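For concreteness, we quote verbatim a single protein encoded this way:
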Amino acid sequence: MNPQQQKIAQHCLKLAREYAKDVISGTVVACKWVKLAVKRDEKDRENAHLRGLSFNEYEAARVLVFFYYLKHYKGEWRGKQLQLEAWQCWIISVVFGWQNKDGLRRYNEVYEEVARKNGKTIKLAGIGGFMLLLDGEGAPEVYAAATTREQSKRLWRDARKMLGYAPSVKRLIKIKDSESLIEAPSNDGFFIPLSRDAEAIDGANPSAGLVDELHAHKTAEIYNVIISGMGSRSQPLCWAITTAGRVRPKEESICLQKREYGCNVLEGKYQDDNFFCIIYALDAGDDFQNEKNWIKANPNLEYKIGVDSKGKAVMRGSVKRDYLRKEVTKALNSPVFRFGVLTKNFNVWRSNAISWCNLEEWDQCKASYELESFKGAGEVYGGLDLGSISDLTSFSLIAVFPNGEKRAWSRSWIPEAAVLRAVKERGLPYDLWVEQGWLVATPGNVVDYNFIHADISGLSGQTGLLDDLPLVNIAVDRWSIHQFVKDLKEELQDKLVAMGQGYKSMSPATKELERLYLSQQLHHDGNPVLKWAMGNVVAVVDPAENVKPDKKKSSEKIDPAVSLIMAVGAMLGGETESTESAYEEEIYI
């Protein structure tokens, strides 16, 4: 190393050692897993030589120095030299500094869990670049790995920008964007995206695999391809970085399997000298509103380093406190948003089932009006949720007025025999709601579609109410539409559109309804049946943060709420199909 490189190396190694000491002393607020990771390394420094392991500062320094040849390519730091934070120096130095008795790198697998916006791209780009150019492996193969080609290309593109924006690195590589390829002519190496739909997956011989967002991997296929393909390499490295996600059975999640294994290693239940684990997260019981806890999941949380000539504070760190404050504020009101904030910003693993509606906020949207007022709307949209044999059937409308105001209206039907059963067996005030007119009892003990047809058609024909409304369309469950369209008035048949009940159709509508009532842009008339259903809704969230109501997980009926969500879906004009094709289309999963 030249003098400048030696200076950088000494600075970074010093930062790493100070970070370890500060975590142990409590000067740096850290979660249980970070403390255990640091203590594990400190213990190894004392006695790992008994297992043939040693720490090579020069090897650690080589990687740290390489990072300083990179430059930021976006945001306020664009064009500025990259400077690693102390926590980053510690992780990198530990992973690359430790060697086994053969002088080869000790750690071959890394599991890192850290909240979003904590410099993940920078780290992966630097690691990928070093492994491609300077690790000493013959014909290195570096892969940016994800479950789909597009996801892996996204990670690869970020790394390509980081490496291509650094003059000292750019002249050592050849970038072929059309082929998603970075080549290193000096050692016949390459850096490409890898996914389960890539042609190279079976023949991959990775020297390095950079696995992004491991929690989103539905199977272990990609991870296992990387690990199994490393067998002929002398010191390969698989580095997985992820945020937290939804809790699933461990046998279905390679991420939770690796996380559990890493936690067991940190707690001393297993000894695995080849596996490095670091998890930045809130501890159990931590209040995510308490700003003192934020650094546990966000080691790159901004901090003050001085003041400029105008007396303004100069800050460092990629996670802005104002950003987190805004996220926390929104999370307090929205259960769906809270799921994303806790998993992505604070690394808290959560069940994908959430209680969806904030009833206090819902009550704030109550207004006094009649359905007659919808005649003055610019557009009206409907949603119809058909119940099972002895269940609720619900019909909801949303009116959009010229001034931007939106109003909701809902009506539900229930077989007469089911009213008394609900009162007696479940303590529900169905009888009161029938008396007040919020719920309509149909004759018999099963759903009477003829009665419901007549009721809806009666609104259309006898009173002229729906006929006078600017009704655009009515969304109906695609698998129920054909049993309901029969015998319905022809003018209403023409208004029906089929709407799937999966994430693709329901998520935009569910999120929009939540946004509308939380922002008080939607009014309702205080319908107690609708409020009861809104409070019953348990929603499920998928790895992509799509959300939809789940009738099986909801403890009570949610049909009125579902019909309102469908009305919003009709308003959005999203994933709907005409009645002609609904029966033939494939199911949305």
